[in-house]
Every structure is written in C-alpha cells, then in structure tokens.
Amino acid sequence: MGCYDCCMKCLGGVPYCSLVATLLCFSGIALFCGCGHQALTETERLIETYFARNLQDYITLAYLIQYFQYVIYGLASFFFLYCIVLLAEGFYTTSAAKQTFGEFRSTLCGRCLSSTFILITYLLAVVWLLVFAFSALPVYFFYNMDSTCHTITVLTDTPASINQLCIDARQYGLLPWNAMPGKACGMTLSTVCKTREFRLTYNLYIATFAGAGITLLALLTYMVSTTYNFALLRYLGRKGIGTRC
C-alpha cells in the first residue's frame, strides 16, 4: 500500500460528525464559561456601584453569583470530559473506523453503551435548552437598559421626560424591593451606559448567549451522531456478526 492510500485510509477512519461536534462543544463551552464567569463579576460590580448602597441589599445576589461561578467550573470540566468520551465512542463505532481497524464485531455491551450515550445526550440537550433560554435573560435586561439610554440621548432637550425614564433592577429580581435606590433614571442612567463596565458586561453576556447556542448545536450534532452509531450497531447485530461481552 502506497503512502497516499495509507493516508486516505487513515482519514477515512475519522468520525467527522463527532469531530465537528467536539470542536463546537469546546468552543461553545469556552465562550459560555469564560465570558459568563467574567460577566457575573462585572454585574456584581455594576449593581454595587449604581443600584445598591447597602451591602445587605445585594448580599443574596453576591452569593448567587458566587454559586453560579462554581457551577461554571463544574460545567467546563464535565463537558470537556464528556466530549472526549463521545469523540472516542465515535471513532470506534463509525463505519469508516470499522473498515480501518479491521473486522468489526458488535457486542451487547457496545450496543448498551451506545444507547446510554444517546439517553445522556438527549437529556443534556433538553437541560441545555433551558440554560440557553436562561442565558437570554441578562441579554434582554442589558438590551432594555441600552435602549433606554439611547432614548435619553435623543430626548436631551426635554429634561422632564428624561427623568421619567428608568431601569429598576428590583423589577428583574436582582435586588429586594426595599433596596435603595434600586434604580437609575435620567442622566444617571445615561452615565451608567457610557461606562466601560456596562459595555464590557453587555458584550460578555452576548458572548455567553452565543456560547450557549453553539453548545446546544454541538449537543444536537452529537445526538445525530450517537443515534446513527446505535442504529449501525443494531443493524450489524441483526446480520449475525454480533457477540456478547
């Protein structure tokens, strides 16, 4: 066998669907975890500086932010390991890999393992769909805040109207109702929107939302890949070339 034929045979054993899903998952989780962690830190700083004067008003929010940051650490580790496992499973169950590494023998354990991966991936996709929807909430909050600031800029000639334009963090559940001031109005709000912290936090949440979407796309791709692999295992098992563990 020549060098070209050998290279083509090696490339034929690559599970491209699982490989693409792994790259998507790594990039999505990196965006979601990295940007999300920093966005939570910047959010706490914004609330502390412009929306709350008393530590007791945002202490619960600070604890929640810290909790979510620890969850982010766990998510990054879990998805890194799970993507590696799914990629390895793709290498050994794709039809190209079977042709590359010799005669394939479908085992009962192999079919059970593939069905387990399908179930776990489906459950992860459903859970991550909720995470994807939840990550849109801070983007919505900062979008409303930015739109209000844009309106204030347009209405600079009418100060009375400007002072009626406010963003109340208490309405979004970020602060308790007795928090003071709890909201920013008029030119104070416009000043907040012009700060580096606001723009940075807004962009970080957009990147976090995009990362969640990329990760969801990766999980859907994994679902297609694992389902195909399982169907192939069942087909080969019915042809009488399967064995038990």
TrEMBL record:
Keywords: Membrane, Transmembrane, Transmembrane helix
Membrane-traversing stretches: 70-92, 113-137, 204-224
Pfam families per UniProt: Myelin_PLP
Any one GO cellular component localisation term in the record: plasma membrane
Gene Ontology terms: biological process: axon development; central nervous system myelination
InterPro entries referenced in this protein's UniProt entry, alphabetically: Myelin_PLP, Myelin_PLP_CS
Membrane topology of the entry: Multi-pass membrane protein
Annotated localization: Membrane
Annotated SMART domains: PLP (SM00002)
Domain of life: Eukaryota
Keyword Phosphoprotein tagged: no
Keyword Chloroplast part of the UniProt annotation: no
One GO molecular-function entry: structural constituent of myelin sheath
PANTHER family named in the record: DMALPHA1, MYELIN PROTEOLIPID
Family statement drawn from the similarity comment of this UniProt entry: Belongs to the myelin proteolipid protein family.
Name of the protein described by the UniProt record: Proteolipid protein 1a
